[in-house]
Amino acid sequence: MTYDRLVCANCAAPVSEGRCPVCRANRERLQQENFLANLSPLALIALLTVLVAAVALLAHQAA
Ligand SMILES: [Zn+2]
């Protein structure tokens, strides 16, 4: 997702330039969303790895 071409409703400048407080707030929010979007697949993989390890450990103990 890109916000390069988003135009601010307050100052009519590109949000990515951060010319007014509205721009800066929007830019920060969008960057945070990008960060979370990039983070979540990694978090899912980490969670899956932990789950598989736990299941493997339990299966080993049961056998
Ligand atoms: Zn603005």
From TrEMBL:
It comes from the Bacteria. The chain crosses the membrane at residues 39-59. Keywords: Membrane, Transmembrane, Transmembrane helix. This is Uncharacterized protein. It comes from Streptomyces djakartensis. The lineage of its organism: Bacteria, Bacillati, Actinomycetota, Actinomycetes, Kitasatosporales.
